[in-house]
Structures are given as structure tokens and as C-alpha cells.
Specification:
The protein has 166 residues and is of the alpha+beta class. The chain has one domain. The protein has helices spanning 2-16, 28-35, 125-133, 145-155; strands at 43-46, 52-55, 63-71, 74-77, 80-86, 89-94, 109-113, 118-122, 143-144. The strands form two sheets. It has a five-stranded antiparallel beta sheet with strand order 8-7-6-5-9. The protein has a four-stranded antiparallel beta sheet with strand order 1-2-3-4. The radius of gyration is 18 Å and the shape is globular.
């Protein structure tokens, strides 16, 4: 009986767990960042290390990106609805209308460039697109956060993750 239970448990662990992405990451920290789907109380998917999209409110599915260098008065981007990663640049679209300063519109478009430690937000889509031209980006292929999470959960891959476009 114990042997049957052990075999069933082992089967479930190997069938449900494990990393689907077989890329040879440079270290365990990088591997965990690009392959972990969730933690104890949250779900997530990676962008470019160390940036990730997380959701702790599984009822309203409020996706959040914590910032590293912080845009003035912004420690995170909330209500993230779409992302794109292209040319090592993270693009983010938010529906947050929360004003961080009275009289200032909420930033809803963001550009993050980890290699250059750039984090910048925009209240106007035209300004956002003009800024992208500085980096040679003219076409944005947004992916909805819920769609990205589902794809990452099912396949272990998103187009920008190492080992997924090889």
C-alpha cells in the first residue's frame, strides 16, 4: 500500500512539476527566475531579470510590476494589463488612474530598460511612442497579462525568455 502511494505521489510530482524550459541557465537564481510560475501566495511570469509581473489578488487579477530604481513617487506599476519585451526593452501598459500627486495624471505607459537602469513612465501615449523611437521601436505587439501568464504556466515559455525562441 505504501509503495503504491509512493509511486502515485512520485508520478504526480514529475507530471505536474519540473521546468519545461530546458535552456542551460548560467546559475540557479537565473533558472528559478525564468522558470518559476508561482510562490506560496502569488502567481507570476518573468520579463527581463530582475523584472517580473506578479499577482497576489487572484480574485481581481491585479497584476503588478515592482520597480527597482523607482520613477518619482512610483515604487510599482499597478493594474498592468499588457506587456511587451523587445530589443531588451520592457514595455508596460497600465489602467491605473490613481494619482500619486494631486493634479498630475496617472502614468499608464512605461518603458523599462534593465541594462541601462532606465524606468520611465508616461501619461500620454503619443509621448510614450515618441520615446520608443529613440530605441528604434515603432511596432508594439502587446500581450495581455492574463494571456501571458496562461501561456507561461502551460508552456514555460514566452517569446523573450531564454530558451524559448531558440
Amino acid at each position: 500500500m505504501r509503495l503504491a502511494f509512493f509511486i502515485c505521489a512520485l508520478f504526480l510530482l514529475t507530471a505536474c512539476g519540473g521546468n519545461k524550459n530546458k535552456h542551460e541557465f548560467s546559475n540557479q537564481k537565473e533558472k528559478m527566475f525564468y522558470t518559476d510560475v508561482n510562490g506560496m501566495d502569488y502567481i507570476r511570469f518573468p520579463l527581463i531579470m530582475p523584472y517580473e509581473v506578479m499577482c497576489v489578488d487572484l480574485v481581481e487579477m491585479n497584476w503588478v510590476i515592482n520597480l527597482k530604481d523607482s520613477i518619482r513617487f512610483y515604487s510599482s506599476i499597478t493594474k498592468v494589463i499588457e506587456v511587451e519585451v523587445t530589443h531588451d526593452v520592457i514595455l508596460v501598459r497600465s489602467t491605473s488612474t490613481h494619482q500619486v500627486m494631486e493634479g498630475e495624471k496617472a502614468k499608464q505607459w512605461f518603458v523599462i530598460i534593465p541594462s541601462k537602469k532606465v524606468e520611465v513612465g508616461f501619461t500620454d501615449e503619443t509621448e510614450f511612442k515618441d520615446y520608443l523611437k529613440l530605441y528604434g521601436i515603432s511596432v508594439i505587439k502587446w500581450i495581455e497579462t492574463n494571456v501571458a501568464y496562461k501561456q507561461f504556466k502551460e508552456t514555460g515559455c514566452l517569446p523573450w525568455i531564454p530558451g524559448c525562441s531558440e
